[in-house]
Amino acid sequence: MSLELTRGEMLRHENFIGGKWLDAVEGNRYAVTNPATQATLAQVANSSAADARAATDAAARALPAWRDRLPRERAQVLNRWHALIIENAEDLARIMSMEQGKPLAEARGEVAYGASYVAWFAEEATKIHGDIIPQTQRGKRMSAIKEPIGVVAAITPWNFPLAMIARKIAPALAAGCTVVAKPAEDTPLTALALAALAQEAGLPDGVLNMISAARDEGIAAVADWLADDRVRKITFTGSTAVGKHLARASAGTLKKLSLELGGNAPFIVFEDADLDAAVDGLMAAKFRNGGQTCVCPNRIYVHRAVFERFAALLAARVSALHVGPATDAKAQIGPMINERAIEKIAKHVDDAVAHGARVLAGGKRLNELGPNYYAPTVLADANEQMVLCCEETFGPVAALFRFDSEGEVIRLANDTPFGLAAYFYTNDVRRIDRVARRLEVGIVGINEGAVASEAAPFGGVKESGYGREGSKYGLEDYLSIKYLCQGGLD
Ligand code: SIN
After folding, report:
1. pLDDT tens, 6-41?
2. Cβ(269) – ligand 1 distance below 6 Å
3. Is 472 exposed, middle or buried (0-12, 13-18, 19+ CB in 10 A)?
4. Ligand 1 centre distance from Cα of residue 130 (Å)
5. 104-163, pLDDT tens digit by residue?
6. Rounded to 5 degrees, what angle do the CA atoms 449, 454, 456 make?
7. Would the CB of 159 count as within 6 Å of ligand 1?
8. Is position 389 annotated as part of the catalytic site?
């Protein structure tokens, strides 16, 4: 499979600003490569602060008219966009699997997942209600109305090139905001194709603007948005370090922020769990997207009484995973995104082995497939001295820790600055309630490994960030409340 598309025009190389496809102001480009082969897929605009500024100008100009559209009219555009995403799903999936590396079946799944946010927020657009506040004084009427927050800057990661940008842009547009967006350096092509479909759906010029940039230039472009007081909100998915930088750097103009950051999720298997179900849940949660997911379990705690049995079941399943490029129809795990990612995974595994981990599956690079492949790995006897206990590995490595009691495992699970997701397996109903309440996270999977849904609030606590995406709560993040107090009434 190459980048042969039914509609070649889906592959865009330019920025999308004010309804026009434009080269970067300074004329620079950079190469987007296929992580499976390192071949160049496209040369895209390498934007600077000047492009970021032009995008903000366009978004600010488009705001009044878009904000004043009836919610139903905004919903109609979102529904047309959704229909076009579904119609062009195969092209989107191909572009995504080529630039990101995930197997084609998974890329198709991500197109459906991302599209579900567009359909969801099309419906939510028509449900933005305010309140009439019960009177406290005669002659006065008080009410609260909700208004779009303004121009939103969306900065998205490479691991879900379509779903992450869709679940930021769709609620922003539904709320009546306009958007400037920068997809990740490694994976701009899917996002640009999505912007082309939004244009085809009839989104007015300037309502959505998108620029691409390589690493350093991207930092400069985003810095322009951070300093610009017309940008009223930043929505970001990525690392905690970058999230903290965005919070600090946007303080000058006090922007609203939604930050979906690092996870280091615990996955707990209690002694009374259905072990087959727990293995199924772990396979789904851990090996989705090759382990490159913020909600991936990173620390797997297994009760001592079932540890060896669980480890053996898991190792058998992981050893059977088929690794290969998106062109291989059998592939379940693709290449990692880049050299930095593969080096981090190798470092974590080597450090774990040096600290006493037993390798039950994998544990090595697969250089015979290409430079960015790592074998799906199971490590037993993990402990707190290992780097992977406190840092997210972001790769196909399942590290198993032993525990003895519920109190101990809750303490261990919460012993991290992060709090995005946690999972646990048990058949004890009272324990379900107890453990779910005590875990310090934003998302809990209970006897379930696949937690994401457009209808559910996605987001974390502690250093995993704040704000929620998806669900009715996801829309609130793009609205501000205005209080109206009318006096002089009878
Ligand atoms: C993420 O990795 O940030 C998002 C994963 C998801 O939507 O499930």
Report:
1. 999 999 999 999 999 999 999 999 999 999 999 999
2. no
3. middle
4. 31
5. 999 999 999 999 999 999 999 999 999 999 999 999 999 999 999 999 999 999 999 999
6. 65
7. yes
8. no
Q: How far is the CA of 76 from the centre of ligand 1 (A)?
A: 27
CA angle, 337 then 345 then 318, to 5°? 90
Q: Which residues contact 307 (CB under 8 A, 6 or more apart)?
A: 380, 400, 402
Ligand 1 binding pocket includes 293 (Cβ within 6 Å): yes
Q: Give the position, in ligand 1's atom list, of the atom nearest the Cα of 113.
A: 7
Q: Is 260 a catalytic residue?
A: yes
From the CA of 154, how far away is ligand 1's center (Å)? Answer: 15
Q: Which residue, judged by its Cα, is nearest atom 6 of ligand 1?
A: 452
Interaxial angle between packed helices 163-175 and 71-87, expressed in degrees from 0 to 180 and rounded to the nearest 10:
160
Looking at ligand 1, which atom is closest to the CA of residue 294? Answer: 2
Report the first-to-last Cα separation within the chain, whole angstroms.
73
Q: Based on C-alpha coordinates, what's the Rg of the chain? A: 23
- Interacting residues of 368 by C-beta distance below 8 A, sequence separation 6+: none
> CB of 117 closer than 6 A to ligand 1?
no
- Closest atom of ligand 1 to 292 CA is 2
Tokens 């998106």 correspond to what residue?
Answer: 326
The sign one gets for the Cα dihedral 247, 249, 252, 256 is: negative
Strands (E), 36-122: 40-45
**Catalytically annotated residue among 294, 296, 463, 476:** 294
Q: Which of 264, 293, 298 is the best mutation target for the ligand 1 pocket, counting ligand atoms within 8 Å of the beta carbon and taking the most?
A: 293
CA distance 46 to 159: 20
Using one digit for the tens of pLDDT, what is the confidence trace for 437-450? 999 999 999 999 99
Cα 297 to Cα 282: distance, rounded to the nearest angstrom: 8
What tens digit of pLDDT does each residue of 333-388 get? 999 999 999 999 999 999 999 999 999 999 999 999 999 999 999 999 999 999 99
Distance, C-alpha 127 to centroid of its chain: 25
Catalytic residue selected from 260, 406, 454, 469? 260
Going by alpha carbons, the residue nearest to atom 1 of ligand 1 is 294
What is the total residue count of the chain? 490
Q: Report the candidate in 21, 18, 22, 27 with the shortest Cα–Cα distance to residue 46.
A: 27
